Amino acid sequence: MHPILFNLGKFPVRAYGTLLVLGFLVALWRAVRVCNRRMQTEPEGSPRRIHPDIAFDLGIFGLLFGVIGARLMFVLLDWSSFAHHPLDIFKVWEGGLSLHGGLLFGILFLIFYCRWKKVSLLALGDLCAPSFAIAYAIGRIGCLLNGCCYGAVCNLPWAVRFPDESVHQPAPPAAPILTPPSHPTQFYASLFNLLFFVLLVRWEKRPRRDGEMFFGYIAMYGFYRFVVEMFRAGATSTYLIPSLHLTDTHIVSVLMVLAGLIGIGWLRRHRPAVADAGPSVPAAPVTAR
User: Fold this and answer.
1) pTM, whole model, 2 decimals?
2) I need a surface site. Which of 38, 90, 150, 224 has the fewest CB within 10 A?
């Protein structure tokens, strides 16, 4: 593990926070770039003609609310670890975010933001889907370096030993107590979401209904979390129904898959597919403030 990348004087630069910020910046750059292109190609009145400032502001405030939601969900699901040390709730830089909570709060803020700015929720949701996937893929590498969110014991060639969260760790500079070789589920998560990013970018280039990619990523995310939760259960995730080997995350993930598929089905029954407009008369690029 490499939770601290380097030190700036006495200030440690942590891998988790650094990769989280890097993922956010890549995602924001990608969304603004797509907005710039569509401002030059999409006709006036098209719901896909979203000003880059809209994407930029959504990214900044969406990150804030997403982190709050992700941390809140993580704390609620593991309250016993925080009950006697409530100030640890604010130590986000040490890891511990539930991306189900982040996604939920992010979607709620997206709905509010679209109503406030009077832009299409479905079109803006589609814009966000690939950005969220690539940000997630990068951020989970931060989890791997930090040593959190690991999986159950295994004997696979790529198994990794992590600082064991089930025991009290000695204070530095003593060596941490490590788990047996375990699934690097953070890496699995990163690969899943990198694949989702590629699929969404290809989807974006095809005729589609506004909202398809948004609901598609919700279903993809639920599928990925259900699969990876099977490797985390018993390690950094606990069973809600032990006899069925189900955790609370399994149940939420199934609901996300159903919601995503139902959303896509409804759109395909009630709305025609539309392709992005092609290049038109060149115009000066619009940049975010």
Assistant:
1) 0.86
2) 90
